[in-house]
Amino acid sequence: MQGDESASQFLLLRGRRPISHTNETTAHTPEPPLLVLAGSTASGKTALALALAARFPAEVVSCDSVAVYRGLDIGSAKPALEERVLVPHHVIDILPPDQPCTAGHYARLAREAIAGITQRRRLPIVAGGTGLYLRALLDGLSPAPPRDEALRERLRARAGRSPAHLHRLLARLDPAAAHTIHANDVPKLVRAIEVTLLARRPITHHWSEQGRDALTGYRVLRVGLDPPRAALYDRINRRAAAMFDRGLEEETARLVEQYGYDCRPLASLGYAQAIEVLRGSITREQAVALCAQGHRNYAKRQLTWFRRDTEIHWLPGFGSDSDIQSHALALVEKHLAV
Fold it and tell me: Domain range spanning residue 147?
């Protein structure tokens, strides 16, 4: 019986129904399945992906704009090495921190990984919380204006005096974009203002338009995690403290020594606060509080972003909850049986 079940899963992941005992065959061959796990930071996406990978032959494709960089381990909450040995993960540790990774670059790499997983007759599970990356992967993005280095330098100069100035400028140009981008995330602020000025329309219009390269050839199941807000914030607070306990300051110091304070990924949450501790601007206790607050605000922005996707099946709990895992398992089984 167990062999029959494994054979059935094998055929399902190839995009075919198992042949019944009456020798009836299907009239068509469905597209191969693709699972997407979305949600805010600390909602348990990795835990759910690993639980599903324990039930189905699967591999995980990360969708995280910080986890793509080597050396940024604690602050990005990457899956542990033993977890990555147990279940193959892709699009993690692919670039040094001093190289940019755009949404388009990520989409190309993720699609290559998904194609490879499918060819190996396994289930691709895309898991992460970077909404723009996920949209680029699934829906494509409209072509953006090219980089304007002169404009970028002027904006960076203003940011050097006060990052809040750039955030206020973006809020005037595109309030919706300012709501989704943290006031200290200078690279994203610069790019958002650059695109808005050069295209002469808000960057959120660019984000909302489907490009010419939407992902096709897969049956996509989108699952979202939406734990109770108070419980989520408590977990975020504890995770922020745990990051510093695990050595976030030391990890940041090593990165600064190699790449400098202005390395773009070091402006992300956690690393930005650790840098302020290294500079003596704030205490560790203040850094933990600011890190937690920043991640709580980020979680709100993530949920606002993902709520726009009407195809997401929302589960009201953490990915580590047994009842949520059972619900997700049922959704995946139903999806594979199509």
Answer: 143-209
